[in-house]
Amino acid sequence: MSLWQSALQFIGMISVVLAGAALTLKQFFSHYLIGWKRDLMLGILMLSLFGIGVWWFSANNSADTVHAANTSTTSVPPAPQPLVNTPPQANKPVLPKGEKLAVGEILKREKDEYTRNWKIETLGEMQQEAQMARKAEQLPALKPVIIESFTPQALYKLLQTERSQFYLLDVREGYERSQFTIQHDAIARYGDLIHDIIPPNLARNKLIVLLCHSGIRGYLAANALHAKGYSNIAFLQGGMAAWNEAKLPINGNANYSLQPKSLKILSKQQFKALGDKNFTIQIDTNSPAIKGIKNLTQLPFETASTTMLQKIYQQAGNKPIALVCNTYGGCFHGLNMSYLLKQAGKQYVGIYDDSKQWLTQYE
């Protein structure tokens, strides 16, 4: 409020007060005060009113001054801060993205009905086997999650231009890799990953793509890595079998035909002729022990860790080792187990198919 506004307010208020006071006093003095007493009383009243007016004016003007000072203080913009030259943060690389579909939806893409149904059924069996293996070692159950994935064609195309952003992890067995492979960054047995045995220095700043034979082990192994805190993970749809079918470049010869001589398939008579001199291992997963075989050692090969394999080698000692199976999965892994036995320097005598339906035709 300005000085003139304050003055006008003061004059207006004084005028009203004085007019009212004058009328009241006139009536009062006319009746009660006469002569010099009246003049004295009027003088005192006038001085009092003048003093009150001066006090009110001073107080009002002081409050306005403080308000103006506060307003001017808050309205002044803050002083500009000095500019600090900070180095720009390094941009994190944007990793390639795969398809984010449920594994069941991916398996339904299989054109061949038999293969499609087999993969869907096998996925359920292998999920159950993986949970059983973890429970036996007192590991928490794996929660199935949606994992990114690539078709062989999509992955191959990206590898041509963005290879440095990928980390290819081959989770197949040694025999499978010996047949054919593609350039990869590391290897790890599927059974080890199921037991939370992870390769050291596994990249976290790249997209880890898991490679297996059909895509199922790759998906399940990716779940195990996800449970351990790895977020940049994916798997190859259809596995290396689909990669080969797409006629993409490989190293080696993708020959999946069974070679009876290298596998050494035993007939029932040949197996019985071995007697008790050998160390017999049943390599089926989630299958009851085969009856009628003495001193039988059960090893769920597909979900067995390398540590478990080494314990079996120690138990066998110098005895010849014979393998038996009665499921498709067990007989399929006969090639992988026999390969590892040979690599470990063990004497492998052969494998017997007790089901008489998976390997009998090759005897």
Write the layout of secondary structure elements.
Blueprint (H helix, E strand, L loop, with lengths): L2 H29 L4 H40 L27 H5 L5 H24 L11 E3 L1 H11 L3 E5 L3 H6 E2 L4 E2 L2 H5 L12 E5 L4 H12 L5 E4 L2 H7 L5 E2 L7 H4 L1 E2 L1 H6 L5 E4 L13 E3 L7 H11 L4 E5 L2 H5 L1 H10 L4 E6 L10
Describe the protein's architecture and organization.
With 363 residues, this protein is an alpha/beta fold. It has 3 domains: 3-56, no CATH class; 103-252, Oxidized Rhodanese, domain 1 (3-Layer(aba) Sandwich); 260-362, Rhodanese-like domain (Oxidized Rhodanese, domain 1), CATH 3.40.250.10. It has 14 helices and 12 strands. The protein has helices at residues 3-31, 36-75, 103-107, 113-136, 152-162, 174-179, 190-194, 216-227, 239-245, 260-263, 268-273, 306-316, 328-332, 334-343; strands at residues 148-150, 166-170, 180-181, 186-187, 207-211, 233-236, 251-252, 265-266, 279-282, 296-298, 321-325, 348-353. The strands form 3 sheets. A 5-stranded parallel β-sheet has the order 1-6-5-2-4. The chain has a 5-stranded parallel β-sheet with strand order 8-12-11-9-10. Helix 8 (216-227) links the parallel strand 5 and strand 6 (233-236). The protein is elongated, with a radius of gyration of 46 Å. The relative contact order is 0.09. Mean pLDDT is 84; it is low at 63-77 and 79-90.
